Amino acid sequence: MVFLAGLISLAFLPWLAELTLFRKTILLLAWWVLIPLSIPLVIGESKIALAEVLLLFWIVIPVWRGVPGSFGKVLKHPVSILLAIEITIFFLSTLTSSMTAVSAKRAVLHNMFIVGAYFLFVPIFMETRNILKMGYLFSIGLIPVLIAGFTFMARFHFNSEVAPAATRPFFADHTEFGAFTAILFPFLFISWKYSRHLSLHLHLWQKLLVTVSLVGVIFSFSRAVWLSAAAAGVLYILILLGMRFRHLLIALLISGTILYQYSEPLYQVVLQNEANSSKQEVLEQLKSVGNVKTDVSNLERINRWKSAIRMFEEKPLFGFGPGTYQFQYAPFQELRDKTVISTNFGDAGNAHNEYLMYLSETGIFGFLTFISLCLYLTWLGFHLFRKGRTKATQYLALGILLGLTTLFIHSLFNSFLETDKIGLTFYLFSAGLVALDINNRHENVDQSIHLKRTEE
User: Which of 15, 113, 162, 316 has its CA 20 to 30 A from that of 438?
Assistant: First the structure.
């Protein structure tokens, strides 16, 4: 797949070189618009998204002159160090993989995401307005998808049962589409609400983009998307009320302890829930999240989660290898956990949990690295909102933090980081947060130098 992308890139290299020299900004802005519009290209038995082909351009020819000169600051950042560790773990896990070719393909694509969408874009986002441009252009690219989806669903009177097919071929299904819009919505909402602090004067345009992303979240008809968006909303309120990162960490630890201590009584209560996710009513669908008795979707998720844990127990250090879960989990299913939609043919997707995917495919080292990355990004968002030297830094950090929060919550129910839409967005948002942090540190240094000179 990546080899084919390389050939396509080389074919367009002369044109790209000319465009890179004279139209760098146009190329960059077009890529952000095309990410939500990217359609998989099928070549033989391989698939590669257009956004992934364009990603190679950034790696082959950096589109920003300031990229090389900024690498020193980028490489020293804790997020960069964690991602470098992750790249190393993916390499080691590929060497010990149960399916070397599959893992090599997955590892190359994963590392390409990190290099192309994170390392090369942190310097670009040091010009803060580029972070805003990215969010706005993402949502502009989302408008045609939303129109196509609405047109499709209108033919079926907006029946939620046809939602999975409504956003194709741009998104694999409604859940991936909803996850993408859920990441965008908090970012766009914060940039609109606090636009006066960001020196923005496009209120009508901002309202349109916020509305587009909100409609996408609502009409995704995805329980995981709704819950993740609601969680980001709750976190936003708590932050405004003064919540700090340590408070969040303590709350999570206490909640986890209570769930563990009272797991059996809580399980008996949950068994009384027979709400059905296939029903049209929104409240019924939300209640069905806790139905582990009759809801087939929930039961199959539990089956996949247990399979991932059993895979980890067999290969705890480096896992079965990147990209191997769907081909290896079948023997780890137990008869009592199987559902009517279970399969033993390796064609039923992933573990439906990003954290357990890391655990089963890259072992304990990959799992801990990814958890550390998520926690550090969350801490960084809190820190920049509280300690940012400018209002722009504070509110952009808050928007990115809330957007990433939707993904972290959604990752409990689905695994989308391997897709171009969600994977690229995750690393681009991470790059934006790190760029804000580097700029904020630089401002602190400048202020210290100024104070020292004043004292002298």
Answer: 113
pLDDT tens digit string along 186-198? 999 999 988 877 7
Dihedral of alpha carbons 42, 43, 49, 50, sign: negative
302 in a domain, yes or no? yes
CB neighbours of 16 closer than 8 A, spacing ≥ 6? 9, 27, 57, 60, 61
Burial 2-25 (b: 16+ CB within 10 A, else e): eeebeebbeeeeeebeebbeeeee
The structural domain count of the chain equals 3
Q: Tell me: pLDDT of 341 over 90.
A: no
How far is it, in rounded angstroms, from Cα 412 to Cα 69? Answer: 38
Whole-number Å distance between alpha carbons of 310 and 233: 35
> For 41-68, what is each residue's pLDDT tens digit?
766 556 667 677 667 666 655 544 545 5
Structure token pair of residue 157: 């009177």
pTM of the model: 0.88
Same domain membership, residue 238 and residue 99: yes
Domain-embedded: residue 346: no
Rounded CA separation 351/413 (Å): 9
For residue 19, give its domain range: 1-63
